[in-house]
Amino acid sequence: MANPSVKTILSTQYFLYFGILGVYLPYFNLYCYHLDFTGFQIGVLSAVRTFSTALFPLIWGAMADRFHSRRPIYILSLFASTAAWSFYLFTADFWPMLIITIFYGIFYAPIISFLESFSMDLLDTEKSRYGSLRVWGSLSFILLVVAVGRLIDIYPVRVILVLILAGSFLQSVSAIRIPRVAPREMPTFAADALTLLNRRVLVFLFSAFLMLFSHGAYYGFFSIHLEQLGFRSTFIGFAWALASIAEIAVMIGSVRIFSRYAHEHVLIVSFLAATVRWLLLAVSESAGLILITQLFHALSYGAFHIASILYMDKLTPPSAKTLGQAANNAVTYGMGIMVGFMVSGYLFERIGAPRLFFLSAALAFIGGVLMFFEKTVRERNDL
Asked: Chain-wide mean pLDDT for the chain?
């Protein structure tokens, strides 16, 4: 396993990446809502960013594996996306923000999939300890989402633009410390990349797409939904933080969980948890019940995320590891969230948040059923 200093560097990257996300996810769409953008415009901005996240990780990932250039591309992406974000400070109009979002998304796209690949390389034979690195991201998400919630009860929500810019710059500078790794000769990249097209991988990716599709209403409109129910930003921030606290329990216990249960079993349970979570959120108006739904984040996101990273690493041959994680990230946090944002943005003002969450529950349930049947058929064929 890697030495402690390298683990500290990667833990810092997770801390900063998800700290930034703790500002962006709950509050950027709320910022756009306060600019009087329509639900459709908010959905378009979110979808365009995630469309870039769907397409460009595949391009960047293939380049990184083919030319052994993961580290330089990672550092370039961090600095370029930071520069692109700075332009949000100079406009509050939809069309300029749309253009900025496109360029930001292009360079933001590979960051998390490359970071996951660095971690898989680092952990080597101890991949079940991935949670011990990733937990730092959850901790920073909690700190930032609560702190910023209180902050924007006092200051204009526009303060999030400066906070994200500062965090992005710190992450870019600290990424320079990631050590160079001598590339291994892997001449079979093209052939191994084709293994991503086998049935087991495709079923998993489509199911994972549906899972993140189901999260579109949550990530895009949960904060706005709570504000419409009459809750203040402090409560909104606490609700997001509670979800991450629940997630941390899975991160800490990941070694025990994945030493006892197969990746596919954990994935199927996470689909079921997401189904129940969205159903409850669709009918919840009381603070207590809303907070209870956030505890399901431990399974619907925490367990799902870790199991997905480990499962994809298991299914991907050595010469296409970066591409494999990029494909996973592109299909889920790219295409899945993109479609979720677009559909939710279109339907939000037409059918309202409760019905959106009923739709989310149906999508998660279908994804779980597909995973279950693929596993059942494969096990029968192996008999």
From this structure: 85
Query: Looking at residues 9-31, what average pLDDT do you find?
Result: 90
CA pair distance 124, 2, nearest whole angstrom: 9
Residue by residue, DSSP assigns 222-248 as HHHHHHHTT--HHHHHHHHHHHHHHHH
Per-residue pLDDT tens for 298-308?
999 889 988 98
Would you list the DSSP string of 295-313?
Answer: HTHIIIIIIHHHHHHHHHH
Say if residue 1 is exposed, middle or buried (CB neighbours under 10 Å; 0-12, 13-18, 19+): exposed
pLDDT at position 63: 83
> For residue 349, with 0-12 CB atoms within 10 Å meaning exposed, 13-18 middle and 19 or more buried, which class applies?
exposed
Per residue in 49-89, pLDDT (tens digit) is: 877 777 787 788 778 777 778 889 999 999 999 999 999 99
User: What distance in Å separates the CA atoms of residue 61 and residue 112, rounded to the nearest whole number?
Assistant: 11
Q: Which amino acid is at 271?
A: F
C-beta of residue 196 within 8 angstroms of C-beta of residue 316 = yes
Tokens of 19: 């700290």
- Residue 175 CA to residue 156 CA, distance in Å, equals 31
What global pTM score does this model have? 0.72
3-state secondary structure of 154: coil
The answer for 184, left when phi > 0, alpha when psi is -120 to 50, beta otherwise, is beta
Average pLDDT (140-165) is 89
Looking at 35-110, list the stretches that DSSP marks H as alpha helix, in order from N- to C-terminal side.
39-67, 70-86, 94-108
pLDDT at 243 > cutoff 80: yes
Dist. CA 355–CA 226, nearest whole Å: 15
End-to-end CA distance of the chain: 37
Asked if residue 209 lies in contact with residue 332, where contact means CB atoms within 8 angstroms, the answer is: yes
- Distance, CA of 232 to CA of 223 (rounded, Å): 10
Burial of 182 (0-12, 13-18, 19+ CB in 10 A): exposed
Domains of the chain in start order, with CATH, are 4-178+188-382 (1.20.1250.20)
